[in-house]
Write a structure and sequence with these properties.
Blueprint: H1 2-20, H2 23-33, H3 37-50, H4 52-56, H5 69-86, H6 89-92, E1 95-100, E2 105-110, E3 128-129
Antiparallel strand pairs: 1-2, 1-3
């Protein structure tokens, strides 16, 4: 019975990553890498609106007002942990997980060169694929 309950609680999280396709998350990651607060904030709001039920269990920043990009970047660390944990393997074939030791954080991005969302243009290529 416990296993059944665990599966019921886990299934919505697995379905989230697959149904969402990580599209808005990756758009947010790219916006942060480009120091574009307006687009990053818009994508954050979209994610919270679309995935509110699933996100709220592990990510408490939905509905939070961000005035500075640094705060949004700090929040993105927790958001990244959520999506890395719940990402669908098939979707991840088109993406990579990268890590910035200086920010002590990971993120998901499209394949190709590193695009660090935590430092943006000042250290855009800082990080490594993991």
């Amino acid at each position: 019975m416990k296993m059944f309950i665990v599966l019921l609680c886990t299934f919505p999280m697995m379905a989230l990553a697959k149904s969402q396709g990580l599209t808005n998350y990756v758009k947010m990651q790219e916006a942060l890498a480009n120091d574009d607060m307006k687009v990053a904030l818009s994508e954050h709001k979209t994610l919270c609106k679309k995935d509110a039920v699933e996100l709220k269990a592990e990510y408490k920043d939905c509905g939070k007002e961000f005035k500075e990009i640094e705060g949004l970047r700090e929040s993105f660390k927790r958001l990244s942990d959520f999506y890395i944990k719940h990402a669908d393997k098939k979707e991840m074939d088109q993406l990579i997980v990268a890590e910035c030791p200086m920010a002590k954080a990971k993120w998901i991005q499209t394949k190709g060169g590193i695009r660090n969302p935590y430092y943006g243009k000042s250290m855009l290529e800082c990080g490594q694929k993991i």
